[in-house]
């Protein structure tokens, strides 16, 4: 496939699949080009994420692409686990068909903030507010993982739309995996080195163009934000107004 550079994940009734990086990293940027399942993909989840792979106090940064019925938009759900606590889901409807071509999905993780990008458009920013006693992943290295699995109990319209196994097998494609970060084990000074490019001034906050794009996504394409879900959080979590 593609000169051996692309990875194909397949899902059928007997199995899902995935792959993982050989090393873990502490801070940096990871990106992947992904082409998602075409057509009727309801009930499937294609994921690209970082995970500390620790049993109890887990850190994790998630992209989860939620399949849908033909003609309906794909949603991407992001979530952030810090010091073992997650439940920070946000969902955005993609403004293009992600099954027609490869698009680049990126996670930037620095001491200042975490940013999720679709192509060059930031769809989520989570700032480091440890000074306000808000959890932020700073100490546990994370591996990079991708999986394709069946989750029709929740993935599409809250589980109302079930997977159509007559359309199986389902395929998602990945290529051009890129990571720049501090490998662990590796040089111990790396994670705290202020000269790492991702810690540079230009990356400490969204620039003017990114800020405009970010507002555009949130106004026009965001369909769920845990911060405004009063049924789950009668009092918004502290990071929502930090």
UniProtKB/TrEMBL annotation:
Keyword Cell wall biogenesis/degradation in annotation: yes
What keywords does the record list, in alphabetical order?
Apoplast, Cell wall, Cell wall biogenesis/degradation, Disulfide bond, Glycoprotein, Glycosidase, Hydrolase, Secreted, Signal, Transferase
EC number(s) from the headed UniProt entry: 2.4.1.207
Q: Name one GO cellular component term.
A: apoplast
Which GO terms of type biological process are on file?
A: cell wall biogenesis; cell wall organization; xyloglucan metabolic process
Pfam families the record matches: Glyco_hydro_16, XET_C
Origin: domain of life? Eukaryota
Enumerate the spans annotated as GH16 domain.
Answer: 1-174
Q: What is this enzyme's class at the first EC digit? A: transferase
User: Which PROSITE patterns does the entry mention?
Assistant: GH16_1 (PS01034), GH16_2 (PS51762)
Q: Post-translation: what modifications?
A: Contains at least one intrachain disulfide bond essential for its enzymatic activity.
Would the keyword Membrane be found if you checked this record's keyword annotation?
no
One GO MF term: xyloglucan:xyloglucosyl transferase activity
Q: Name where it's found.
A: Secreted, Cell wall; Secreted, Extracellular space, Apoplast
**Assigned protein family:** Belongs to the glycosyl hydrolase 16 family.
Concerning PANTHER family, the annotation shows: XYLOGLUCAN ENDOTRANSGLUCOSYLASE/HYDROLASE PROTEIN 8-RELATED
Q: What does this protein do?
A: Catalyzes xyloglucan endohydrolysis (XEH) and/or endotransglycosylation (XET). Cleaves and religates xyloglucan polymers, an essential constituent of the primary cell wall, and thereby participates in cell wall construction of growing tissues.
Please report the name of this protein according to its UniProt entry.
Xyloglucan endotransglucosylase/hydrolase
Taxonomic lineage of the native organism:
Eukaryota, Viridiplantae, Streptophyta, Embryophyta, Tracheophyta
